Amino acid sequence: METTDIQSPTASERVYRKVMWRLMPVLFGGYILAYLDRVNVGFAKLGMRGEAWFSDAVFATGSGIFFIGYLLFEVPGNLILHRVGARVWITRIMVSWGLVSSMLAFSGSPASFYALRFLLGIAEAGFFPGIILYLTYWFPSHYRARIVAMFMTAVAFAGVFGSPLSGWILERSRDWQGPKPWQWLFLVEGVPSVLMGLTLPWLLTDRPASARWLTDDEKELIRRDIAAEEAAKQAAGAPRARLSDALRSPMLWLCCLIYFSFTIGLYGVSFWMPQIIQSTITQDSFQVGLFAAIPWTCAAIGMIWFGARSDRTGERRWHLSLAAWAGMLAFLASAAWVYSPVPILLALCVGTTAVMCIVSGFWTLPSALLSGTAMAAGLALVNSVGNLGGYLSPELFAWLKSRHGLGAGLAFVGVSLGIGGCLNWYAWGRRSVSASK
To answer: Taking the model in full, what pTM does it have?
Structure first.
């Protein structure tokens, strides 16, 4: 009787809600810190411009070189997580990236800045795709868009709370002794990652079967749901066993290209928003942080609604493509209004919301194509190759800005999102054709 009850839709929803409230606060907090330590260089730049060795070109290269280290270690990192479990591997990742992030305070030349940003990419490699993989152990696909959106809302919250915090540190630390304000920024914001990382072995559970906070019936419900989904993917011909199986999938490489286009938009916003606001709205560092929080707040609200609606309707193709095209129009409009404070802030709100909706909703596509070890490798491959957009974006943005002005960089971001939207529309159409065969 108890087993029957646990299989009802209401009871099933209750079980997954229980899992969500147990895991998501931890994962959410970790990703806030990860993203803050990755992009706080955008705020540090406001203070580093006074250093003789620093320039826009150094900033662009240092911002982007993070993703080279990221690329090299993503796939092996995810395979290790799949083997040893999230508790051990995510702990290693968080402690090491927090230490390296704080060490950026000791940058004294372009070479040392590049080296530390490269090491930061190596340290953080495997965190994001590892969490996406980890969530597939706990949630079936019909919950996944909203769960990933909830997790990735951490990026928006990193902007909502991290932007004012970064601006406050830059302003207030002018009166502090010792390091310069930009050095205090790196030192202060790296420590919480180390502290949280050390608590993860007691906060995370590797798999549902080992969760003491679930009843036997609840564990069985999750096991059956995940097993049924895996069986359906195998019946549809999803690669499973080896990395080579994933590499032979043309759709996987198309996913890499789509995510590449989307991450150009994501890091165009993340790295350059402080300077866009400083150039158009206010010169005060703390106020820059407050204004930057506005688009991120819109994004946090929008992506939760977007993920829930996409899961409720089961529709992915048009949701993601329309969001990408809306982002394209917003950034093209911001390029035209680049020195009009109110219009550009509105455009940044729409564009940032669109970017966060598509990069969170996107992960329903590759996770629907792969299973088993191939999923562990494939998700890491898509994230690492796609994140090369994070290397290209600041470099091209800086080059366009130096030659044609800020509007040219914003237009580049918009065009990239538009291309990604078209590729996404095609990819979901191809997946539907393949599944029907």
So the answer is: 0.72
